[in-house]
């Protein structure tokens, strides 16, 4: 119980978004309030004690600095900033220039930048080079001993910095006569002042340089007998905060954000409403190994495997057209390059007037819009990814190719691949078909529709002319399935009978089925995994590369 | 085990976003594939059987219709559409006009609309009125017996429709000489054809008319001795699919979507990157009653109570400025008007150069932008909400008022309310302060900063001049706390000692603390609950009104 008394349950607050956790505190009973007050003062005392300790340390640092200053009249121009300087002490009005904005237009101008000390290199005792990185931009900063501005001690201080430390650099922009090879910016900074904001540990678990290296570069080096470090995936993921600093990773997640944005913008321009459906859902009714189960205040609950049922219910609520961007949870033991236990689902559901082609039309225009945007507006990001993970641009048509499942089966048959005409395609067959389609139609993005009913979920509408097939479709990029969609059954009794036919206990989904009893429009929709879009557009080979902190059956940390 | 064999675990697919579940199927072993094939055919047979049954029913319907047709040569102009007509049978190219687009410009034009039969009223046997609703727009459709176009049987058919059924109406737009009171659109449709797409059950659990009624209207009626139905909240939430069809609810969730969009757009224009952090996190380390625990493949795990630790880690990964929109889970037993067990968090985290005022500056400009947008661009939505739930426009300043916690305490003291100067404000004190601020500064939106350190989470940076206070802030709307934010501790050893001082086992958050050892910038951020923004901007009195399918300690369904 002690752990739960008043403010002594701060553990529970670790991840508490302050907005709500503080609200919870303010609605506490007066009882716990009393304890929390006492506790509060106790903690404040502790904090003060620590604070004093830190001040002493700072004082010592100042004394040391003062001593150094005797020896070096320029000692004020460099050094580690003490904590109190970084505690919101003052608003000075100084302006920091972005590293990516440094160019020849700023020649001879004084600038102040903040960034990461990516590499530090001394040339004798009089010159030091520090490459400073901010996001994907890098600039070379030069310290040259100079009686008035840069002391030998300052150069020594610069070379003492550990890689990845955060530094402030003040200096003057200069334009060298030759191209600078190691940095993105084609200017240098002649350093006047150098302060360390936060020191990185001297020995990093991985070097950014190593993590940013392409496989090609490693192999080229091997040819000349040089062995460069290859950082494997587990090491990367174990040290994800460092791994994410590579230019390719900085680009991947900015690209992902762009895709989400175009997805939203396009759909909003087509009158879709963005919604959020619950991730905590009743029962363990969905059964099987694929759901994460939990106890919800004494009731069995599980994490939503998709917003499927709820997005359909919102259509029944008369919203017309909706989309959702949110996490999707799968407890499947899939150890593949394309499965995660938690990923971001991009979901769409919409009333249809006549035909599921209305849904495919949205898919077509949405994705062509996304691809066009990435190719036209995200060149720099794509270049950064390409540099480490080379890929060829995705081939897609202005009007997306539409093939029936039967046509796909026929193409495979002609090519000597026999598949069950009423079964599903396995990964291998999908890849093969992707190659055949590329050869024949010159596209790596296409839709396959009219899947066999038996391989689709119970809520899929059968075809009107043949009940063995369904009004459903899958969409493929580079031979891998990325989107799945369909017209849904909107007639409650037929829906219930389809669920039953698929072995589902209808009583566990009664709220869903009943939603169709109050007047429901014909409708359809589709779902996409955000991480897969990025992975397949960029031809990456593992979905863990496109999730910030991936979750797979073996990975829950960090 | 039987339940998990091959395709016989379709229960697991209920909520499976098709994209991924289908992928899982295609990577099945050939073993389970065999079973699934057999099963697939069995199901296809079942589907066909059902199909045949339906066809027979359709044939009977046709026969009945044929019989009726003998009696009524206009029988083809109305009736219930059989299922096969709604199974994507054909693309006819017909255009449906939106109800909200119907106006006098379309006078004498033939239109086709699809919507909900909101009310149906007969006047004798020769005239019927059907009010059709689509989203928040309504239009009156008139059937008048007429030898060539409308038979008495057709009028009878119209009056047989159940409320909330989905119908297609073809007719000619006419402009009545007098204002139409009961509908949003000021035209009528003279009906020529009327088909029912999907019938609602005859007896609905709640009538939309009742659910859409304002408290005021009920009280006015009471004054003249009339008792109108008042739909209570539990009934609403139990039948959320119907409740959501009211104009106010249609508006609330469109407003919510707009807020999310402005939030994103504003932040992107300020160089923030949208991210997604994991909701499944390791350990039950955060302890207490506030987390939902679950088993993750044999490891103890819980649902993230906020993206706090992860968004800071992304800052450590060099992303500069990030935001996240995603679900947040709280297992708290809070039975208040403002707490949910699952809500949508809007989170921001950013490097700061000098001062946490840089974070407050973002809050200020972001929220003034949001409020301006809502007032200027969402008038219709606000009107729809106002009609059922009247509220006065939010008062806010062009430059948000900033008060220190100490100033707030002083204002309360002067007003006769004593509060602990190093404690937190309770809900009552917050409300009182809200009223005082409104009187003195004429604003219902303001920032209170420099909170006592002891009432803030361990990762909050203490003030540089007084360690009893912190570089933190809360933001209030209409006297209720809505945003909480702060500068964070970015120095790993100090962070660890603060965690320890707050009673947290540091070993359980080592991945987080270690993230600061590789070079970390000073940074800060804040968190907001999306549902609360809508609730407080619109002066609603319960957060369950702004969540599509709210989750509280007692509600997990629908």
TrEMBL record, chains A, B:
Example of a GO biological process term: aspartyl-tRNA aminoacylation
Keyword Protein biosynthesis assigned: yes
Cited Pfam families: tRNA-synt_2, tRNA_anti-codon
EC number: 6.1.1.12
Catalytic activity entry: tRNA(Asp) + L-aspartate + ATP = L-aspartyl-tRNA(Asp) + AMP + diphosphate
Bias-annotated ranges (Polar residues): 1-10, 24-33
Localization: Cytoplasm
Region feature Disordered, mapped onto this chain: 1-53
Keyword Lyase annotated: no
Coiled coil: none
Bias (Basic and acidic residues): 41-53
One cellular component (GO) term of this entry: aminoacyl-tRNA synthetase multienzyme complex
Taxonomy, superkingdom: Eukaryota
Keywords: Aminoacyl-tRNA synthetase, ATP-binding, Cytoplasm, Ligase, Nucleotide-binding, Protein biosynthesis
An example molecular function term from Gene Ontology annotations: aspartate-tRNA ligase activity
Membrane-spanning segments: none
Residues covered by the Aminoacyl-transfer RNA synthetases class-II family profile domain: 253-558
Recorded family membership: Belongs to the class-II aminoacyl-tRNA synthetase family. Type 2 subfamily.
Protein name: aspartate--tRNA ligase
Annotated source species: Apostasia shenzhenica
């Amino acid at each position: 119980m002690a752990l739960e008394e008043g403010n002594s349950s701060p553990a529970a607050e670790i991840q508490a978004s302050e907005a709500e956790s503080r609200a919870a505190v303010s609605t506490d009973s007066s009882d716990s309030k009393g304890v929390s007050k006492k506790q509060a003062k106790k903690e404040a005392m502790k904090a003060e004690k620590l604070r004093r300790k830190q001040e002493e340390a700072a004082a010592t640092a100042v004394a040391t600095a003062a001593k150094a200053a005797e020896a070096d009249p320029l000692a004020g121009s460099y050094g580690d900033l003490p904590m109190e300087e970084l505690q919101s002490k003052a608003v000075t009005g100084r302006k920091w220039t972005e590293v990516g904005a440094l160019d020849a237009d700023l020649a001879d101008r004084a600038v102040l930048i903040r960034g990461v000390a990516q590499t530090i290199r001394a040339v004798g005792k009089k010159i030091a080079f520090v490459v400073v990185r901010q996001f994907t931009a890098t600039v070379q900063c030069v310290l040259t001993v100079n009686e008035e501005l840069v002391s030998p001690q300052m150069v020594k201080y610069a070379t003492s910095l550990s890689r990845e430390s955060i530094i402030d650099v003040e200096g003057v922009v200069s334009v060298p006569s030759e191209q600078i090879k190691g940095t993105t910016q084609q200017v240098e900074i002649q350093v006047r002042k150098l302060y360390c904001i936060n020191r990185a540990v001297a020995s990093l678990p991985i070097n950014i340089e190593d993590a940013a290296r392409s496989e090609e570069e490693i192999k080229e080096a091997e040819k000349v007998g040089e062995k460069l470090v290859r950082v494997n995936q587990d090491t990367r993921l174990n040290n994800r905060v460092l791994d994410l600093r590579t230019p390719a990773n900085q680009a991947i997640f900015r690209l992902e954000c762009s895709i989400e944005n175009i997805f939203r913008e396009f759909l909003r321009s087509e009158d879709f409403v963005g919604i959020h459906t619950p991730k905590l859902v009743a029962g363990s009714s969905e059964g099987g190994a694929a759901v994460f189960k939990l106890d919800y205040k004494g009731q069995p609950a599980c994490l939503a495997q998709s917003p499927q049922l709820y997005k359909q219910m919102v259509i029944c609520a008369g919203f017309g057209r909706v989309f959702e961007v949110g996490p999707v949870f799968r407890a499947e033991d899939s150890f593949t390059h394309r499965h995660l236990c938690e990923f971001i689902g991009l979901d769409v559901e919409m009333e249809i007037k006549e035909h599921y082609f209305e849904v495919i039309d949205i898919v077509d225009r949405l994705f062509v819009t996304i691809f066009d945007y990435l190719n036209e507006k995200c060149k720099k990001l794509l270049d950064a990814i390409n540099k480490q993970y080379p890929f060829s641009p995705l081939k897609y048509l202005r009007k997306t190719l539409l093939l029936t499942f039967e046509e796909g089966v026929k193409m495979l048959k002609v090519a000597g691949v026999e598949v069950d005409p009423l079964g599903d395609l396995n990964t291998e067959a999908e890849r093969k078909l992707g190659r055949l389609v590329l050869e024949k139609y010159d596209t790596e993005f296409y839709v396959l529709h009219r899947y066999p009913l038996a391989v689709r979920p119970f809520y899929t509408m059968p075809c009107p002319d043949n009940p063995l097939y369904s009004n459903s479709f899958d969409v493929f990029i580079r031979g891998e399935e990325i989107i799945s969609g369909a017209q849904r059954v909107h007639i409650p009794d037929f829906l219930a009978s389809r669920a039953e036919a698929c072995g589902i206990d209808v009583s566990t989904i009664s709220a869903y089925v009943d939603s169709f009893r109050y007047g429901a429009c014909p409708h359809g929709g589709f779902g996409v995994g955000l991480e897969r879009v990025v992975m397949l557009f960029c031809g990456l080979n593992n979905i863990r590369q496109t999730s910030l902190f991936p979750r797979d059956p073996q990975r829950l940390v960090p």
